[in-house]
Write a structure and sequence with these properties.
Two copies of one chain form a homodimer.
Chain A (H helix, E strand, L loop, with lengths): L1 E13 L17 E10 L2 E7 H7 L1 E7 L4 E4 L1 E3 L11 H8 L4 H6 L4 H10 L2 H17 L2 E7 L6 H17 L3 E9 L10 H17 L2 H4 L4 E6 L6 H13 L4 E5 L7 H8 L3 E4 L5 H10 L2 E4 L2 H6 L7 H6 L4 E3 L13 H11 L4 H8 L1 H6 L17 E4 L6 H4 L6 E6 L2 E8 L11
Parallel strand pairs in A: 1-4, 1-5, 6-7, 7-8, 8-9, 9-10, 10-11, 11-12, 12-13
Antiparallel strand pairs in A: 1-2, 2-3, 5-14, 14-15, 15-16
Helix pairs in contact in A: 5-6, 6-7, 7-9, 9-10, 10-11, 14-15
Amino acid sequence: MKVDLLIHNCGQLLTLASAGPKIGPALRDVGLVPHGAIAIREGRIVLVGSEAEVRQQASAQVEIDAQGRVVMPGFVDPHNHLVFAGDRVEEFEQRLGGASYQEIAARGGGILSSVRATRAASFQDLVAQSRARLDRMLAQGTTTAEAKTGYGLSLPDELRLLQAIVELGRSHPIDLVPTFLGAHAIPPEYVAQAEEYVDLVVEEMLPAVRDRRRELNATPFCDVFCDEGAFNAAQARRILSAAQRLGLGIKIHAEEFARTGGARVAAELGATSADHLIQTDSGDWAALAAVGVMAVLLPGTPFGLGLSKYAPAREMIAAGVSIALGTDLNPGTCYCESMPTIIALASRTMRLAPAEAISAATLNAAHAIGRAHEVGSLEVGKRADVLVLDSDDYRDLAYRFGGNLVARVIKDGREVASNSVVLAAKVRPGAH
Amino acid sequence: MKVDLLIHNCGQLLTLASAGPKIGPALRDVGLVPHGAIAIREGRIVLVGSEAEVRQQASAQVEIDAQGRVVMPGFVDPHNHLVFAGDRVEEFEQRLGGASYQEIAARGGGILSSVRATRAASFQDLVAQSRARLDRMLAQGTTTAEAKTGYGLSLPDELRLLQAIVELGRSHPIDLVPTFLGAHAIPPEYVAQAEEYVDLVVEEMLPAVRDRRRELNATPFCDVFCDEGAFNAAQARRILSAAQRLGLGIKIHAEEFARTGGARVAAELGATSADHLIQTDSGDWAALAAVGVMAVLLPGTPFGLGLSKYAPAREMIAAGVSIALGTDLNPGTCYCESMPTIIALASRTMRLAPAEAISAATLNAAHAIGRAHEVGSLEVGKRADVLVLDSDDYRDLAYRFGGNLVARVIKDGREVASNSVVLAAKVRPGAH
């Protein structure tokens, strides 16, 4: 078979092959093939396995020598707030001085301050700032990412954010999966009239969002921030049910700061994912496991906030919940674009084994955004989204931290990023 | 004045200028000059200040446009175990499964497993593995670094590690400050004969180490790992006093896992630094502050181990202790080469303000290894070790995490590293 590209000399080839989401002990199976190779044609994987087998069947125009290193699927980031303007570094300093996230929000900071900045930014600026984040995500190995709206909070502003996602999805190598998060916060125009804002979301925003599916090249998900100070479980149920009636997939921010019932709403409605889940109990885990709702855990957020309580991942795994990992990239609680950093955090703060964290950051993350038929593992027919690491042991992704072990990023069969550092020789004062 | 290089258009120029180590409120003063510039001649800073002032006095052959971004001194990493072979990723997995650092050490793992790997490695291999770490440190903005021995634990093996430091210091852009840590662990040959090993360190190793100062181009520091399972305070005192008599500067690993008195030994002997200090109390802080011992705090280590107790930095600062930050890069507890990651950790786990963490990672870190006359701030006469960040707000170093904000690294007036990512345009399956 003639192929376009052969990636060979893969010391550890992680296929992540699996019939469905990885659950329980299967999380530890990264499908390790020693001395592996991948053959790629027209952007898709056509052969994958031991180098001997692959070479027997394929002859390639171009080869990439992985030099005995780890080769694995690109990361899938299933939860991030990509599109915003400005930052909230001031609030970060206030929090270090002792202010809580809720106190800052009560003062008009928090999400609403990013809403003001995002509404005020020009479309070009918004796209440029978000594109820079995508560039950094790509450099850290993310090849498919969710992208939420939620800093608009009015019909035209939310549609503008969706339009930014269209523009970024068209032009950036990372594939974007859009999520409408109109119910991210109660906007200033609706203070003490939350129900009326929910009406607006349900009656006007959701149909308009659904109608953008052609430009988006996908039916967007609908998400709700269900928590103290945001939307309650009844409001979340109303919004997400309406979204389902329109044919949208649903997700929910549940039990991040307080346990307000979002996880049960996710189970009741059969959401694709329930995210955060820090304040959950065994009843919640059983409910999520029974329906197969993916739990998207976001350890960057408690870390970003300097908190010490993380989602009870080990208990959830033991209860049969399927877990994924995401960055939660956002300007308020977690300005982190790096999935490897999330893996290193997850291993230490939630006791995930390196293999578990990698499964959660690839295949299960793809399931969390409905893209597991296309990405998340290296299997025949899937997109050739492949990373070559600067390491010969995949566990280094968890064990080592603070650097970038992603050396080369291949998206749809083409190399789109390579992290290089130009080093000059030693110089000494006076030697000029 | 004719100069070799002008770095201009520095949106935030952080000079860190200070007469001595930064203590108390001074830690928050990063010497911020808006619209700044630096003029460099023969690898040293000759002018620094507002761009208008600098331009009035200097005409440059070469200019670097900082594009309105943050420009600051290169990081100084005052505590790391650079020179080792192999890794300890297996132990990392065991720890995630519940084993403690002390349990792993008791089974023959821990430091002694790195001693075996380091002794077995060829000199070329040892240098190559360490050089790769230096390359990654440089990419993260470290321009001066301590480098400890301590995985040899015999006279010839420790001297071989010093020789590796000589070789790396000669050839790598990062300036190395050598530290002899022969008392890192009790070697297998001396189990239950710790005092005899201390005799060996004092009588044979220290004089031989001192005699290497010409090749090292520096008088090495002497350090001792004073803790439960390592050396006790009396042994540490004996070794460090002997080192002082030979003219070596002294340092100590103190109160990392258990409070065994190392901090008081540091104060008693007037050590240059006492490092870790997690299990210290107010009496310890008063003793360190009274003598001006630099406290080198290493938050990467509890993080690396998945522990939740960090050094009480705020209390130490309030008690007048001068603090620095280091990576503690080592294969067992903290495989982290990145000073920016340590700043992001320090702000969240020890509540350091971004400015405090930056002072601790530059000027105070230089004091911690006796190099503040040469590096750690951007002042006339000091080496031109300068970073240009991919950010216009220095607080981003703490606020954002998981990426690399260091865009360009200038060492001794020459650009030695630049972090670049090659991005290809969007491609789609079928579009080939």
